[in-house]
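Suppose you are handed only these lines of text.
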Amino acid sequence: MEEIGFLGIGIMGKAMAVNLLRHGFKVTVWNRTLSRCDELVQHGASVGETPAAVIKKCKYTIAMLSDPAAALSVVFDKHGALEQICGGKGYIDMSTVDADTSSQISQAITSKGGSFLEAPVSGSKKPAEDGQLVILAAGDKDLYDQVVPAFDVLGKKSFFLGQIGNGAKMKLVVNMIMGSMMNAFSEGIVLADKSGLDPHTLLDVLDLGAIANPMFKMKGPAMIKNSYPPAFPLKHQQKDMRLALALGDENAVPMPVAAAANETFKKARSLGLGDHDFSAVFETLSK
Ligand SMILES: NC(=O)C1=CN([C@@H]2O[C@H](COP(=O)(O)OP(=O)(O)OC[C@H]3O[C@@H](n4cnc5c(N)ncnc54)[C@H](OP(=O)(O)O)[C@@H]3O)[C@@H](O)[C@H]2O)C=CC1
Ligand SMILES: O=CC(=O)O
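From them, the structure of the protein bound to NDP can be written out as follows.
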């Protein structure tokens, strides 16, 4: 494949770009805080000074940015992607955003002759490091087919979901479920503890039953120790709850459980826990 551009070297972007480099791809990176690219240079990446410079150099560019505001800014602002996008170039936004944001980006890119794919991912820091993400792509099928070799490195499975917006919506539904589950899990650990049970035994019981899952297994032991090293920052989980609730509004879907979970994530943010892992929502329930 041609050289790949990568915009956004946060927790996920860094792991994904390193993975591409390890598998022999040439990668040019850009990050708003440019110094964060230094580590990628040690892995063999080149650095572009602006998103526009990366797009100019690369046939395909991936973005992995915090939220809708960041995704829009990197495309539309001065020296943004839009300045250099043109026919023959592909832009792949893997950030978790809402369908409307994705449509705005798609329209802008395609109006300049470029092709666009939204491709948010399910899976956190560790799956990103291990190339085990689940990729939820939608948009330009030709572009999808062209970048499958990169998706094969980044993920264990890619879905092509059709028209723009379907990838964004699928990701929000999945994360809405995950955020609600994390709240129920936190309440369960607190309830076990306060009612005189050993929370570690609760984890063992859960792991043997029908609701066993990798998230409980991976996060539970650290939560019991009140430890929340950021894999999926809580501020992003709350953003996903907010965007999923808006999708519920649009479709008149009552979501009382997700709405309550959103309130606890907001509470956690107000306590300064936004940069901790989203499992830190446990703090709002255990105190
Ligand atoms: N972490 C996870 O487990 C997962 C995250 N996601 C999603 O992936 C995306 C990235 O997540 P993650 O890597 O964890 O997040 P991080 O907070 O670690 O990284 C966010 C990135 O966005 C950049 N950024 C933020 N605001 C702006 C802006 N206004 N203009 C330009 N760049 C900006 C940051 O740059 P700077 O370094 O300068 O701040 C950084 O590169 C999010 O949409 C998240 O919801 C999806 C699946 C799993
Ligand atoms: O978006 C987060 C994840 O774990 O998936």
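What can we learn from it? The first helix runs from residue 11 to 22. The pocket of NDP (ligand 1) is lined by residues 8-13, 31-33, 36, 64-67, 69-70, 73-74, 95-96, 121, 124-125, 231-233, 236 (CB under 6 Å).
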